[in-house]
Amino acid sequence: MKTITVIGSGLIGRSWSMVFTSGGFRVKIYDNQPEQAAKAITEIRKQMEELEEAHMLRGELTAVQQLSLISSYDDLAQALEGAFFVQECVFENLEVKQSVFQDTERLVGEDVILSSSTSCLVPSDVFSKVQNRRRCLVSHPVNPPYYVKLVELVPHPETTAAVMNATYALMTKVGQAPIRLKKEIDGFALNRVQAAITAESWRLVQDGIVSVKDIDLVMSEGLGMRYAFIGPMETMHLNAPEGLGDYMNRYGRSITRMLNSFGPVPDFLSQTSKNIINEMCELIPSDQQHLSGRRERRDQLLLGLAKLKKDH
Question: Could you tell me if residue 115 is inside a domain?
């Protein structure tokens, strides 16, 4: 049975652990804070039992069987022993991640793959202090990865094709939907697309074109309905009688005209931005009770969507 080490026992670390055990892998969770990894297993047990009751537990093993594959460690060397793959999930701080991988490299063999969950730090920075960078890459999940299956695989400039292929195969085996970036870029693919949507949504509210509530409806009741199943390229391909080329012949000039009318990148810290934030907080107050309730609602909706996509 192959072993994967997850470094960091927060939300992403716990989710990765659940994903890997659903594929039948043994998972060793490490956290440098005493007892935190053990507490993470308690939280994982609760989630798995709820998922099993809702018939949404991933994989062929029962919750009890999957839980038996997870163990917790406060000692990094013990956590890394026997692992063929390491998934780092510490908080988004470059120096901390660099230190983690320096320590990890000293304790594992040359063939062990080192993977980071970073959402915005490029691999050439994250792994700059690693000696053997050929086995390093970013595997960027979408939060929460148990329900949203996309994983962006981003290579370091020195990453070998074999490491990319092995990680792609692993992610596919555990039920994720991996994509390969051909080279590193700030923000990767998902966050760059998300930033473009964020910027134009912000501008439309800022310029008095539409309200916060209504711009969210543009996505949740409009674009998002399609994008939950097909992407922007296929959407265009299907929206013209003869496909994507026909679509661009019909609408390409209009798209160019609209893009040229876009304003500059918004100042997200301006007084106008504070007005937008206040408008959002009127809809959903920013206290923990309201935010926790909406996050729970989000996860339940994602759970239902995941089930729908699985069944179709």
Answer: yes
Q: Are both 172 and 33 inside the same structural domain? A: yes
For the beta carbon of residue 5, count every other beta carbon within 10 angstroms.
27
Average pLDDT, rounded, for the chain? 95
For residues 172 and 219, membership in a common domain is answered with no
295 and 194, same domain (yes or no): yes
The pLDDT value recorded for residue 272 is 86
Answer whether residue 185 is part of any domain. Answer: no
Specify if 278 maps to a domain.
yes
Residue 147: predicted pLDDT = 87
One domain, residues 9 and 132: yes
Same-domain status, 303 and 286: yes
Largest alpha-carbon pair distance within the chain?
61
Counted domains in the chain: 3
The total number of residues written for the chain in this structure:
312
Please report, rounded to a whole number, the percentage of residues in the chain having pLDDT higher than 70.
Answer: 100
Tens of pLDDT, residues 87-146:
999 999 999 999 999 999 999 999 999 999 999 899 999 999 999 999 999 999 998 889
Q: What are phi and psi of 141, to 5 degrees?
A: -85, 170
Give the structural domain span for 248: 230-263
Confidence of residue 310 (pLDDT cuts 50, 70, 90): confident
**Average of pLDDT values for 28-51?**
96
